[in-house]
């Protein structure tokens, strides 16, 4: 598995990234450590986390995932030099009072303090890729559909202020490269424009939801990323399990539905984009299509991301070693032109239900 360069940074990562957001909630610490070790054994050199994790977010688990990773690094000190570690500073609170006392802003001081906290929790001296988890600006995200200027976050830190905070961290050697998450084409352009205008760090990556149930990246953001030389890191390629087939027969909460999976276990998650009726309807169509072509639903969904020109490294989230192996083993799966045409036909009927 060859590595890929992230944007114009000096980071080179495997095209599969281990996502860790369930560590500390659905996955206990010993299992989390086993997954981290096995992922490294399988050749994955890229892990992603966030100060907000574990998810679903709760005050009791805020910062816990980073602590679990830090404990693993303490036990496996030689692992650090083999890894590219990405984490994220949470944006404005979004109804989470345990995040900076519910602040509706993300100041330069907040960014620097959050970075210091992440470094300490993970027992590392430098964060390889430091990302802003969601914009300070009001934008449609996490299932939102439309931009409305009436909802602007008046008084929020400007993009330049955020970049200057990142510049402070880069110059101090605490961060190697920076990125964004849940961003729009406008946001990407502004971060790049202002960085070039003021000699500030240039974003290397954007981490957005992308997969069979949410392809809005292909409606303009992909051109922006391509022309500006910014890499895409898609998250939730299996749509919280919808694209594994586990809910095809039972629905999300029906008799026999998996109780330990995210959508079965957490009502708050079912109220989000993944719990929409059209999301399950579309997933069932894609899962059936996979079987028609001799593939598992997981193989189809992951191969869709793994083989897309838009994608640099796909973030996979797993609860077990078996899931980790299944996801990694899907690498190398190819999709025929006929199958890709059939995928597009389903999208035409049911357009991005988990946007």
TrEMBL record:
Keyword Oxidoreductase: yes
Pfam families: Aldo_ket_red
Domain (NADP-dependent oxidoreductase) ranges: 15-346
Source domain of life: Bacteria
Keyword Kinase: no
Keywords: Oxidoreductase
InterPro entries the UniProt entry points to: AKR_Detox_Biosynth, NAD(P)_OxRdtase_dom_sf, NADP_OxRdtase_dom
The protein's name: Aryl-alcohol dehydrogenase-like predicted oxidoreductase
Organism: Rhodoferax saidenbachensis
């Amino acid at each position: 598995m060859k590595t890929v360069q992230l944007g114009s940074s000096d980071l080179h990562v495997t095209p599969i990234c281990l996502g860790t957001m369930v560590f500390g909630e659905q996955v206990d610490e010993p299992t989390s450590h086993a997954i981290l070790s096995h992922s490294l054994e399988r050749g994955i050199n890229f892990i992603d986390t966030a100060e907000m994790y574990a998810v679903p977010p709760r005050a009791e688990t805020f910062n816990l995932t980073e602590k679990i990773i830090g404990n693993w690094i303490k036990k496996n000190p030689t692992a650090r030099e083999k890894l590219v570690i990405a984490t994220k500073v949470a944006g404005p609170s979004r109804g989470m009072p345990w995040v900076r006392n519910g602040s509706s802003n993300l100041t330069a001081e907040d960014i620097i303090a959050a970075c210091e906290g992440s470094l300490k929790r993970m027992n590392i001296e430098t964060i390889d890729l430091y990302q802003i988890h969601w914009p300070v600006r009001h934008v449609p995200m996490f299932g939102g559909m439309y931009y409305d200027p009436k909802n602007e976050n008046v008084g929020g830190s400007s993009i330049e202020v955020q970049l200057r905070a990142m510049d402070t961290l880069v110059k101090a050697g605490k961060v190697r490269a920076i990125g964004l998450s849940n961003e729009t084409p406008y946001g990407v352009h502004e971060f790049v424009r202002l960085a070039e205008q003021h000699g500030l760090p240039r974003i290397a990556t954007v981490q957005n939801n992308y997969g069979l149930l949410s392809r809005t990246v292909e409606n303009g953001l992909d051109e922006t990323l391509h022309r500006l030389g910014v890499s895409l890191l898609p998250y939730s390629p299996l749509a919280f399990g919808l694209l594994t087939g586990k809910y095809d027969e039972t629905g999300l909460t029906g008799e026999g539905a998996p109780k330990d999976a995210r959508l079965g276990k957490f009502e708050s998650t079912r109220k989000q984009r993944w719990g929409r009726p059209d999301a399950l309807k579309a997933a069932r169509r894609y899962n059936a299509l996979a079987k028609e072509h001799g593939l598992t639903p997981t193989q189809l969904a992951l191969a869709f991301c793994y083989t897309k020109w838009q994608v640099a490294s796909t973030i996979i989230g797993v609860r077990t070693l078996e899931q980790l192996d299944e996801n990694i083993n899907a690498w190398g799966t190819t999709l025929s032109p006929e199958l890709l045409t059939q995928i597009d036909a389903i999208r035409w009927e049911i357009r991005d239900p988990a946007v």
